[in-house]
């Protein structure tokens, strides 16, 4: 019960941290989560949580790094392979060789081998913390990709170096040649093991699909279990579990790109599920870190052998050495050697969960049964460096990145219009992937709406939106008049009855009002919805049943009116209005294709409306996933994220409005 209560409280803190971040957006969410964890830790609500490093790695680090490998752009990683390796391998080695002796010199009570271990565990950067900062600070995409690639690799290199240093501290023996050979065997073995197991798991899923097992729940369960299984097996056979899950994530990304059209529903469910899982895991990492900080600090405060001011000085000096070493390394090996870029990259090297988990994995005793020297102090120093690097990044990165990154953002980032286009394309692709013989009519209708919106946005991007929009409205109104003329003629000739004519006239009138007077259109929609609800409450059993003959009349009337409207548009097309005219004709062609499909029904058909609602819901979810992805990758900032979400909310409300009119 106590464990359940603790988990429940931590989940609540994750939600609270995001709420608080709305009021104090200048404070990164990880810092808020750490602070909330510290508050709970010092309160009598829960008892002290003992961090199990092995469980922490498999439960948090494995799925987080698997997802990073799955989502990080592979082409950009390959282009940056040289600087990534220099940062993930070269800088880790330099940190161990430089910071280790410095720590031993600064604190002689820490033996050299233990100092090397502390330097090694302080070398990995935290991709989760960097990602949370990037969404607010808008780091240049080249720096962001470098940081992501570095974080994917340096966890493994830092932890391997840490294990060798700990082994030397415990046994008193160390072989440089043996350590080098073991490092490459462990690293290469981890990459190979992860890739092989990922291919086997993918083969299993493909085989299950061939057997007819298309159950999304089963496939999603296999995907969730994948990083945990690969990490555990890799560690069991003695290779790097961290590099194994990274390699598995990259392999799954390749597989996702290759067969994404054949598993559109699984992809949508997968993205939604992983979004929730990662949101929880990312938050738990920093809440747990906050829970551990008070217990770590209290040990040092209560020990009379330590003076608190001196320990704080140790933390400041070690952090300064790490940042200085990182800055020099980046500046020396950078191709353009820009001072600002080197500063941004250096300050973005935030330490995080891997560092603290590694520190807690230090054994309690060494050979001979003696306590591990200065274990509590090493853990305290690790926690202090984590907090200080987070605070420094939060305070200095916005200042350093403000003006220069604004220029880079114009080149590498997304304008609001470009982001809207990307969001709509994601929704359109989802509808296209989900289209089949049963829902073709509904899918074509929604795709037509998406294509029209994309047309407006692309025209706006080219700076011609106002002129094209005006001409398009004029042509649409002209085409609507041609349609209305067809309806009147067919009614007078007795080809259709009053019910069909009234439905068509109403739809044409509403479209005309929407084009000419948006406010009137909204008011009309509200009145129609109220009238519909009143009629439904007063006459619950009443609903006009369309006969087969009326359905055929409706279909033939729409096809005839579309034909005459298109001919009218073609007759009036010239060089000045050609773009607008082609847009209107394309709109009519989409409707015509939908009408000619086998499943065609007028808007009153309930089955069609249910299919549209289902497709629209999936498309909207895909759009929200894209926004979250852009934010996490630093392509858009928090302000634009809010605008894009409002953009989707408005479109979702419009869809509801249209459904109300069609009921």
Number of domains: 2
Top-tier CATH class of the largest domain: Mainly Alpha
**End-to-end distance:** 50 Å
Please give the largest β-sheet: none
Count, helices: 25
Query: Per CATH, which architecture of the largest domain?
Result: Up-down Bundle
Poorly predicted spans: 403-412, 518-523, 598-604, 656-663
Helix percent band: over 70%
Output the radius of gyration. Answer: 31 Å
Provide the residue-averaged pLDDT.
77
Task: Tally the beta strands.
Answer: 0
Q: Please indicate the percent range of residues in DSSP E strands (runs of 2 or more).
A: under 5%
Structural class, by secondary structure, is: mainly alpha
What is the H-and-E element order?
HHHHHHHHHHHHHHHHHHHHHHHHH
**Which descriptor suits the 3D outline?**
elongated
User: Which fold name corresponds to the CATH topology of the largest domain?
Assistant: Na+/H+ antiporter like fold
Please give a handful of descriptors for the protein shown.
single chain, 663 residues, mainly alpha, Na+/H+ antiporter like fold, 2 domains, elongated, disordered C terminus
Describe the protein in words.
- Helices cover 81% and strands 0% of the residues.
- It folds into 2 domains: 2-412, Na+/H+ antiporter like fold; 416-662, no CATH class.
- The protein is mostly helical and 663 residues long.
- It has helices at 2-23, 29-42, 53-71, 74-79, 81-106, 112-122, 127-137, 141-171, 176-210, 216-236, 241-259, 264-302, 308-333, 339-347, 353-360, 375-412, 416-434, 440-461, 465-492, 498-516, 518-538, 548-571, 578-596, 606-632, 638-662.
